[in-house]
Known about the structure:
The protein has one domain: Class I glutamine amidotransferase (GATase) domain (Rossmann fold, 3-Layer(aba) Sandwich). A seven-stranded mixed beta sheet has the order 3-4-11-10-9-6-7, with helices on both faces. A two-stranded antiparallel sheet has the order 1-2. Strands 5-8 form a two-stranded antiparallel sheet. Helices cover 26% and strands 22% of the residues. By secondary structure, the protein is α+β, with helices and mostly antiparallel strands.
Amino acid sequence: MRITEAADYHEPRDSISHDWLNILPAWGMTPLPVPNIGNEAVSYLDFLKPDLLILSGGDDIGTAPARDETEYALLRKALSTGLPVFGVCRGLQLINTFFGGTIAEVSGHVAKSHTVNITTEWRSFFASETIVNSFHNRCIPADSLAADLHATAYDTTGNIEGFRHMEKPLAAVMWHPERNEAPKGDYALVQSLIGLRGTN
């Protein structure tokens, strides 16, 4: 969840967009938000035994240390247990940095839909050219993707907008499946990830 502040006083709180609370039940899934409590958050995965870990958007990496610590801990746990992982926007960026990749600043990508080019691996989910929503000001240049990750979607300037792990049940997209103008193939991509559990 993203970290937000009260309007008139200092009281950080965890929050999640209602868009996620609407789209997941529509996909036949029950959202189970995990608080930003650092390494202690791993106990939630042990107790809840989810089918999928979603690393959602909001909060640039480095601006919310409690969230960074929490999500790195959750990602480590998921990778060690074979729990499928789906990263969205910030989640895509965080996964790339976790594996040793880097991110860069980008302009003109906030609240603007644009075309992405999809590689053959994801053509069963999306068309070769797909329109997606866009709400980010950081990107992954083509030469900045971590070695363990394989690009599956690019914007028209070559920045990476989707990837999968070479061996683990993990994928990520820069667009927001929970928001308007998201491609319908997002559901099939998520279901394919869940179906990979236990096969790696």
